[in-house]
Every structure is written in C-alpha cells, then in structure tokens.
Write a structure and sequence with these properties.
Layout (H helix, E strand, L loop, with lengths): L2 H21 L17 E2 L12 H9 L4 E8 L5 E3 L6 H4 L19 E3 L7 E3 L8 H7 L5 E4 L5 H13 L6 E4 L3 H10 L9 H13 L30 H12 L1
C-alpha cells in the first residue's frame, strides 16, 4: 500500500462515518420530547411595550399570545426573590442601591419610562412601577413556561428559586438560565429536575463539535438554546461603538 493510501483511506473512512452519524443522530441518541415548545417569548416579561419585569408587562405579553416569559431574579436583604434584571437599581429606579441592600417593602418604584435595551432611543412606559416577587408571578401564571436567569453566584438565591419551583409544581416548565457554567452547575445541583439552557461556553463547544463532526458522540444535557435574534445587530442593537465592528458582528451572528 502506498504511503498516500495508508493515510488517505482511514481519513476517508472516518469522514464517511462522522458524516453518516452527523445526519442521523437519532441512531445514537433517543429523541427528547419537550414539555412545551415556546413560539413567542417575552424578554424581561415584555420590556418593549411596558416597564420591564412588572406584572403589567407580563399580563400585556400574555394578552398578545406570548407563551413564554423570560426574566431575571435577584434577592433582597430580607430574603425575598424578586424579578429584576439588574443587581443595582440605578438604571431602573434612579436609586443607587443594590437590591440585596434593601428589604422588599423598601424597594423604590421603577422610573416612569425605561429605555428598551435592544432598541436604543425607544422607551417603554406603564402604570405599574412596582417590582414583584417571583412567587407572585408563579401564582398569577401557574402553567406558563418561564426562563429564570441567575446572573450572580448567590447560593441562597439559587436555593430559594429551586424551592419555589418545587412548591408550585413547575419543575418541567421552568428553565434554569445563566451565561456562566459555574453558576449553572449550582443551579442544576439545587433542582436537577428543571430543564437547563446553554451557557455561553457550552454553546461555543457544541458549535465547535459540530464543525469537527463529533457532535453525534457528545452528550447534550441542555434542553433549550436561547439567544436574541441575530438580525437586530446593527439594526436596533449596537453592541460596539465602531460601526465596522457592528457590521462584522451582524454577519458573524447571522452565520
């Protein structure tokens, strides 16, 4: 056998095998049937039309046939899990205090208008300016699927979210979300029955394994992948100050 064939034949055989399983992953993995299939999600509860993460925003989103609520949680000083994107209240309320430094009853009202994060120059307004408890949201929408994102490595917050989900029998319809794998690990330990979404690093690795042809041989415990719509980059969302970088980001994200 020539040296060329000695290396070429195994490489070709490996390529054929990887290509075969990449197109037929169900030969190696049992298909997972999701408990729900979200079609219209409300970011921060519907922050494009009402003040973010308020009950009014959630109710408005549901009235427009949203079937999935995305939100973030923080913990107050007296141990109440509240729905809030930011740890610090400056942007939302104008008060330079952390959520964790105040009791729930002392949380300030939201501003009368808040700029829409993915649409600079556009503002959302609403009559409801109160921050709400996660428990109140679970009571109001008991069977609505939700994604709860944890941004800080706060074990007390994670534990309380896990307990609330169990208490209201929402294990299958409440998703753990976090950008950081270290936080997601703690979330899964607190309530392993809740489905998880991809962290940033896990999303990168799955993409890499796909292009290497190894994805069919990799276990994927995550059940959901969540990302903002790539087409908003350089249209209503400008993550970089340089126009050229925004154009490049738009092309790469769409790809």
């Amino acid at each position: 056998m020539s040296p060329l064939l000695y290396y070429a034949l195994p490489a070709l055989g490996s390529y054929v095998m990887l290509s075969f399983f990449l197109r037929r992953p169900r030969l190696l993995h049992t298909p997972w049937v999701p408990a729900f299939r979200p079609r219209l999600g409300a970011h921060r509860g519907g922050s494009g039309e009402r003040l973010e993460n308020t009950m009014e925003a959630m109710e408005n989103s549901m009235a427009q046939r949203a079937d999935f609520l995305e939100l973030d949680c923080q913990l107050t000083r007296d141990g109440v899990v509240v729905v809030s994107h930011d740890k610090n209240l400056s942007r939302q309320t104008g008060v330079n205090r952390d959520v964790g430094s105040l009791n729930f009853e002392d949380l300030p009202l939201l501003k009368e208008e808040l700029e829409v994060y993915f649409s600079p120059g556009h503002f959302a307004r609403g009559a409801d300016r109160h921050m709400m408890r996660l428990e109140d949201l679970f009571r109001r929408f008991p069977r609505t699927p939700m994604s709860v994102e944890v941004k800080e490595r706060n074990e007390e917050l994670i534990h309380k979210i896990a307990c609330l989900v169990r208490h209201y029998d929402r294990n299958e319809i409440t998703i753990w979300a976090s950008e950081k794998s270290s936080i997601m690990k703690k979330c899964k330990a607190a309530n392993p029955e809740m489905p998880t979404s991809f962290t940033l690093s896990r999303g990168f690795w799955v993409l890499l394994f796909y292009y290497l042809g190894l994805l069919p041989f990799i276990s994927i415990p995550e059940k959901f992948f969540m990302c903002f719509l790539p087409t908003i980059i350089n249209r209503t969302y400008f993550p970089f100050s340089h126009p050229g970088l925004n154009q490049l980001a738009a092309v790469v994200a769409k790809w």
